[in-house]
Amino acid sequence: MIFKMLFLLAACLINFPAFAGTIVSEEFDSDSAFCFWNVSAETCAHIQSQVAYSGKGALELHGAGSCQVRRKLMFHKSSDIVRNGFYTRFYCKLVSQDDSIALVQKTLLIFSLTLMYLDEKTQFDPFIYLEPAGEERYTAKIGVRDTLGASPRLAPAGFSTGIIDFSQWHCFEIFVSLDNDTLCDSLFVDDDFIAAQKTKLKGKAETFQFVNIGSDYMREPLPVRSIIFDHFTIATHRTGPDPRVPSILFPRNGASFIPRSPSFMLRGDCFTDSFEVLAVSENKEERFDSVFGVEDKCCFKEPFAGHTAYTVCGRAKNVFGSWSAWTGKSIFIASPDTRLFVPDSNFSISIGYSSSDSQVRAFYENDTVMIRLGMPAEVNIMYLLLNVSSERFSSDWEKRWNVFEPTRNFIGNVSLARGIKLYIPINGKWVPENELETGAPGLIAADLPVRLSGLKYAKNTLSAAFTLKPGLAHGIWYINAQFIVQGGKAYQAQSTFFRFEPPAYKKYVLPVCIFLVFCVFIVGILLLYRRKREEIQSITPAMIETSRNITSYLLEQHMHKLSNEDIGRKFGLTGHRAVAIFKAVTGITPTQKLMLIRIEKAKELLRTSVKSVTDIGYEVGYSDLRLFQRNFNKIAGMNPRDFRSKYKH
């Protein structure tokens, strides 16, 4: 926590800026890079492609005397870039001299900014240099030349010291801001914070004139053969590192009997300044909360529902304003019950399908649940009480609703003093579990809600298993354990839980049925479409002509009684063939067409004549007056008399 507070103090000093954009980006992939960079000597720098951090090339500066490349910036102190600050990030690798040449430990200047003052004098302010730290090793430092007094530095204990090894790529990043002649800068190496300083300048600083790579103040050979630079970037926002995903320390995944207003404990890194926690209940109710500053605890204001499973995950925001990804989900149950024993973290309960799986939380009928009880090696465990129950948890064994009803609430006493023996409480006595097979106590093993099997004790872990029988209550089941050591002292592990679900297939029955009905519906539509398409494609000009002839014949003979055979015989066809041709072309049968013709003729007579409805029915071909009225009402939507009253001229 002290380290984090020191870093946050440094963050406040350097005034981290908001996101804006990239100002300079150079990959040194080709000689065209020298169009923007000035070289102190033609032979000291070149673009090489044998060793590059990224891209096709890198800039190599030879260590023979003065060797520096610079690029013009012209960042005036009045600009937002300078006042808010900017980041310079690059990758660097040192190449050692040949073995035959003795290494001379000297300070290396690898980066600097040329700051021009009001009197037109210039200084390297600030700069990054490397100090010797043993054979072929250096430490990274930052410095400012034009200062009032000593340069104050912040290098918190416990942070990386920025060790630079030969022949290894290292990432350097420096933040610089200038406001009212106060220079703030900080250094990161390989994404680790190294140091920060806030310096009052003696002169009146005006402009960051150049950015420099290498050194021009050393007139003698350097203790390295060359220095290679790559992936150089200047931006108004920090380009790395990404926020680190935090870890949830409390509640433990799978824990039960958590207070209804729990304090979630998370752990970030030295850049973390706040956390956000999301808890989702079984009915998908979401709850957010957050905590800022250097606190690691996040407590929701409203209490959680008791005996309800929640999944919780968290994320962290760093001092640069970026959020991390969410943590993996942890599951827990809040409980309003009070507790007699405080759980001891040295004792644990874990469950799963097998001995290698401890994350499973849902089981179904006939599933086998594996239990593992962990305990410290230095404690002499005499026996332990194991409870498996669908009832709400209570550490007060005597006050549990059905504590001594083995058929509803399993409690087992596992003795470890002399081998492994399991006892079951019956009528106030602990009865060996193997005696239940004989039925002597008036209870048989089949009456127990669960039956432990495969009891094994090895490496301070007791493992057992039980099968969830059909007929047990579905819902949340709790597993609790108390450990009694020699002398009678009791310890309790953090309780855990699992959910006992109905048979898995039941939840899929309705969705599968809906899916099958949908598939049948789609197939029916496709078949109907295919049939219609085939019918349309099979219509010939001769069929169209036959259909027209049948229509004309029906118009001429509508007053007579006509059957399908009569119509087919007229055109040399069978009745079935005549119907098939006519329907394929028109979509209706000849009989339906005949009815439409007769009703249209009847409408015309009702509008223009004074004949009775009966006479009109006989005239258009109906011998049955009731059939005529029924068909007319079906087509016209009203009976013949109403039609005449409404439409007669």
TrEMBL record:
SMART domains (alphabetical): HTH_ARAC
InterPro entries according to UniProt: Homeodomain-like_sf, HTH_AraC, HTH_AraC-typ_CS
Keyword rRNA processing on entry: no
UniProtKB keywords: DNA-binding, Membrane, Signal, Transcription, Transcription regulation, Transmembrane, Transmembrane helix
Residues passing through the membrane, by range: 508-529
Signal peptide: 1-20
A GO MF term: DNA-binding transcription factor activity
Domain HTH araC/xylS-type: 548-646
Protein name as it appears in the record: HTH araC/xylS-type domain-containing protein
Organism field: Candidatus Raymondbacteria bacterium RIFOXYD12_FULL_49_13
